Amino acid sequence: MEKMLAAVFHKNETEGGFVSLEEIEIPNISKTDQILLEVKACGICGTDLKILEGGHPANDNTILGHEFTGIVKEKGVEVKDLNVGDKVVVDPNEKCGYCINCRRGLSNLCDYMALGTTFGIFQNGGFAKYCVIPRSAAFKLPHNINMTAAALIEPLSCAVHCHNIADVRESDNVVIIGAGPMGLIIESVIRKHPIKNLICIELNNWRREKAMDLGADFVINPYYQNVKKEIMRITNENGADVIIDAVGLSETFEMGLSMWAPGARLVCFGQDYRAEAKIKPNDIVRHQRKILGSYIGNAEDFLDAIELINNKVIEIEKLITKTIPLEQLITTGFHLMKERKCVKIIVNP
Ligand SMILES: [Zn+2]
Ligand SMILES: [Zn+2]
Question: 3-152+314-348: which CATH number, 3.40.50.300, 3.90.180.10, 3.90.1150.10, 1.10.630.10?
Fold first, then answer.
C-alpha cells in the first residue's frame, strides 16, 4: 500500500493536543460522489494553533489543514462535471443544501455544520499529499490559476463576506481593529474599493507595518495612543462609519462603541465566546447605528474570492509570507505563526 506524509492531530487527555508528521496510507474514494485530490497548497490558519492550545474543538486522529487547493486525481462515478486533472479549491465547511438556512441563501449558517464536519478540523484535511472530499465541497478553478495563491481563497471568502456585510461606501471612514492575518486580509479586500480613510488599530509592530504596506492611511498603536482621540481627529470629530472588530474581545467591541459615527456599522468578525459587553440601546436608536455579525463565507463569496485571485486584484505576494514543505509545518510554520511575524504561511505538501 502506498503511503503519504500527513500532519495528524492527537488530542490530549485534558485539553488541546499536538500534531505529528506521520506516514499513513493514501485514502481511497469510498462513495460515488467523492473525489480524490492531490493537495497542491494548504494555508496555516490561526484556528490550527487554537486547536493545539485547546481553544477550538477538533477530532482526535484527524489530518489538519482547512484552507486548501488540489488537483482531481480520481472521481466517483456520480461526478460528471469535474475531470481528472481539474484544479479545485475546497470549501471546508460542508453544507447540506436543504436546511432552512441553506434554502434561504444563508449557506454559511447551515445547520449541518453544527454537527462538526469541517475538513481539516473534524474530518481529514489538507496537510497531506492526498485528501478525499465530496464533489459538493469543491469549487472548480480556472486552469491557469496559481495554486499556492489559490490557498488564500477560503480566508478571502470570509473577508469578502465581511466587506459585503459592512456595506462599505465611498465616503466612509473605515476602521479595522486588529491586524492579525484575518484583519490584514480584510484590509486588502477593502483597500480595493474607493473609501475615504482606512485606519488599522494594532498593538504589534510587525503587523502595524504590514497594515501600512497593504495601504492603510493611518495605523494606531492603542498601547501608546488614545484611540478615540485619534479616530475623532482623523474623521473631523464625526467618528468611524464602518468598524470591523477582527479580534472579538470585550475590550475591542467596546473600543468600537467608543468611536462609532451616526449611522455607523459595527461588524463583529473575530470570535471569543467568553466576551461580554455593556451597551446602551438608545445609542443605537438615536443615531441609527447597526451591529452586525459576519461569519465565514457563503458560496457566492467563494466565487468572488476566486476572481480576486484569478484577476490578480489582491497583492498575494504581500499576504503570503512564506511557502514551506509539509516537513517544516511545525518547525517553521507554527513557529512563525506563534511569533506573529506573518500573514499567511502556505504549505506545499
Ligand atoms: Zn481558517
Ligand atoms: Zn444546510
Answer: 3.90.180.10
